[in-house]
Amino acid sequence: MEFVNTSFEVSKTERENLKSTVDEIQINNGEIVTHLDDIRRNLNHLTERHLDLQTRSMRENLVFSELKMETTVDFHRAHRFGKETEFRDKKDGRLIKTRPIVCRFKNFKDREIVRTSAKELKGTHYGIQEQFPKEINDKRKMLWPYFKQAREDKKKAYLKRDKLFIDGNEFILPDDDEMETNDDKRKNETQSTRPKTTPHREPQRQTQRSHIAPRRGRRH
Length: 220
What we know:
The longest helix has about 55 residues, at about 1-55. The chain has 3 domains: about 1-55; about 60-130, no CATH class; about 130-210, no CATH class. A hairpin with a 2-residue loop joins strand 8 (about 165) and strand 9 (about 170). By secondary structure, it is of the alpha+beta class. It has helices at about 1-55, 110-115, 135-150, 175-185, 200-220; strands at about 60-65, 80, 85-90, 95-100, 100-105, 125-130, 155-160, 165, 170. The radius of gyration is 30 Å and the shape is elongated. It is built from 5 helices and 9 strands, in the order H-E-E-E-E-E-H-E-H-E-E-E-H-H.
């Protein structure tokens, strides 16, 4: 009997020790979680500041696309970047190689004069657009279909950096589920901050086949 009582007391003591250890681990874990949350907030803040500084440094920049690549190019504070593309010259049919050119203006007003004149290039190979960091460009690509739809609905809409404003109110992107639902309606929309002529033939052929197949079945 004495042995049983002794064993019981030992087990009770061990359980209490284990409980104390578990409580201590939980406290430490809570402190770690809090510390990680602080680090995450600081990282997000630093990322936002970094993007803001990048954007500010590009404030006087404009990107010119589809300009012919000459043997000798002489620019002041300008350089080519990005992937090389080709297009066929409408006049003589020559295949022309091109890469975008980013130019930094000394005066922001001069930049705006050139940027607002970009509409005159509609229907040509040439294009002018603002330069943004990749993260902001990605956000603008996601907002573009909603911007275009708002314009088609005769609403006042404009993009400012990575934000879309419609009739004076900031537009908030829907969650992932809603975006998946809307994706079918907008799959033929361009995904560029400045839309280029991009053929969407493959999705159209798939849609046509899906409707043609049942009609052949009914004929037989």
